[in-house]
């Protein structure tokens, strides 16, 4: 999948304990306004849009106007989507980039700190299957420095049209399952972030997998690219490993299969084969001859790309 240049500036018998009710869905960070309503967008969803607007577009805040309304809940902070996007200089009207439409692969976008604030705000008012027109003031775009390589000055706004082709769930939504005695305990925060308590018992001698939540989506096959959230801990020390997607602010995509780990993928990659989307797994990985310590991972399976 291609990323658009410069715009993307993821001990108890009960292994899962639900800690209270889920937090209510946050309000969108942008709404329709006079500037976003000026953007005229024509064409079918999924195809490159024809976009017209009077220049200059000078919004005081990021605004979004829905052109085609999709289904489901609005995207939220930390969620990943696959989109087509058409980007324009809102001051001059010049086209900057049109990508992810038609036969092209959609672009992965994470609503978070690695994405321009205006893009995240604009996506927060849309859902899967939607087309939305977003206008972004300089402070939510490239700021006072602008972006010379894209022909954007520090005073230029942006106009962006998104087609949200896929939206991956922000956390595993399957049915909680009971696990064996001696398995690490997992407690979930309201947003789905796992807290892990490793028992005093010695680590397992082979990789052991427990289904913590049983999802109801499609089954993962070997070779699939899968979007996951995960946290790993050192079994002996109880410390969180580097690379936790929850610490990085959003999920990531990995390849599933027996060879994935040897090719630089996480050590639990082969354990996801046959699991259904929406599931959460607890995976204990023993120490190996290369000196890697015994670890325990909690993995949310959020979707197949």
Write the layout of secondary structure elements.
Elements: E1 16-18, E2 40-42, E3 50-52, E4 63-68, E5 80-89, E6 95-99, E7 107-110, H1 117-123, E8 131-136, E9 158-167, E10 175-176, E11 185-188, E12 194-197, E13 208-214, E14 225-234, H2 245-248, E15 252-255, E16 280-285, E17 295-304
Parallel strand pairs: 1-11
Antiparallel strand pairs: 2-3, 4-8, 5-6, 5-7, 5-9, 8-9, 10-13, 11-12, 13-16, 14-15, 14-17, 16-17
Question: Quick recap of the structure?
Answer:
This protein is mainly beta.
Based on the model shown, name its key terms.
305 residues, mainly beta, Chitinase A, domain 3, 6-stranded antiparallel β-sheet, 2 helices, elongated
Give your account of this protein's structure.
The protein is mostly beta strands. It folds into 2 domains: 25-167, Chitinase A, domain 3 (Roll); 175-304, Chitinase A, domain 3 (Roll), CATH 3.10.50. Helix content is 4%, strand content 32%. It is built from 2 helices and 17 strands. The strands form 4 sheets. Strands 4, 5, 6, 7, 8 and 9 form a 6-stranded antiparallel beta sheet that branches. The termini are close together.
CATH topology of the largest domain: Chitinase A, domain 3
Q: Whole-Å distance between the termini?
A: 10 Å
Mean pLDDT: 90
Please mark out the parts with pLDDT under 50 across 5 or more consecutive residues, or reply none.
1-22
What is the element string, with H for helices and E for strands? EEEEEEEHEEEEEEEHEEE
Quickly count the domains: 2
Number of helices: 2
The gross shape turns out to be: elongated
* CATH architecture label name of the largest domain: Roll
Share of β-strand residues? 25-35%
Family: Belongs to the FKBP-type PPIase family.
Signal peptide: 1-24
Keywords: Isomerase, Rotamase, Signal
Organism: Agromyces flavus
